[in-house]
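Researcher: Re-running this chain for the archive, since the previous output was lost when a drive failed. Same request as before.
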Amino acid sequence: MTASSQRQGTQRQGLQGQVAQRGRILVVDDDPAMRAAIRRVLAPHYELELVDGVATVEEAFVPGRFDLALLDVQLGDGDGYSLCRWIRQADPETEVVLMTGSVSQPDEKLYRSLEEEAFYFLFKPFERRVLLALLERCLRLRRERRIKERYARELSRDLERARGFQRSLLPDGPVEAGGWIADGRFLPCDALGGDFYALLEERGGDGLVFSVADVVGHGVSAAMVAGMLRSVLDAARRRHPEPDRVWGEILSGVDFFDGPRYATMVFGRLGSDGSVCYFNAGHPPMLLQDRAGAVRELGATGLFVSRLFADRPRRVEEVRMGPGDRLLAYSDGLFEARDPSDRELGLAGVVECLRESRELPLAEALEAVIGALETHVGERPLEDDVTVLLIERRG
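Model: Regenerated structure tokens:
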């Protein structure tokens, strides 16, 4: 290929790109004089295809080929309203502008145009400047809409990847070690949530460590902070698994908490001897249920996870669980969930569900708690993230 041929090919590609950017318009009018007039006005600015009737359009129309269709209402083999409907069904991305030379019943014509989802309606004769301004505005809005839709799709894909990553941080099923079994559920109220729970086997399989945390707020911002808090927790646990040391390292490691940002958290070690050594940093009380079904609360042992409370008193508690005893840890989204009449499930509702599911296996008892929540809220969407963790001492 010669240099001259290469230049000509490049020029043709450039002109094709310019034509595509200018917009592609289908013009349907059975009056040759009107088609010629429209060609004179639009050809310098747009790529045009001019046809004389409905049959020609329906035979040759290809979705995605045109950005806009300019249709006469009265055609020799049909009407523009029906053709508008047909085009919008064949390709919803193609905008339609209707035009007519009849000035009778203008309100009825405008109504039909709106009913068929046309972008605009013009009466002939129209000025050159009006037609050009209208079509340019229509195509500009179409371009902007497509950019927004593309951005929304990309954002949706990013959120789905983030959801997948957040799910990957959670256990993929029950965890069992050292005479313990535990399982949990996480129900975010938005695409992403600010809760998390952790279940990890102790070295040597002598027991489990567990945690439930709730970062104030929900959505993307809370999820980002929750991810960083989870990293701080994991690093602290690896260095010093004792709950008091973990708590201290978490408080010194949350320098990324901005302003009044805080979180609540429970963390505990489940020993092979049935011991539960834990701290509760401003979190809702855990519920300890014995084999007979009696339930008691294990309340907070200190204030929130926050830089503001790093020097406040805190303590670690210990209880002992026997075979068949259960421990429920959860976020406040569980008992604060509201039904359609704005009534909370309440802590009493959670306790009642525990009692009713006492004879069920652990997995079924956990599903009973989730089922009670879903039954309570009905069709009302969750307003806060919900995390539930159920632990049982096997013996």
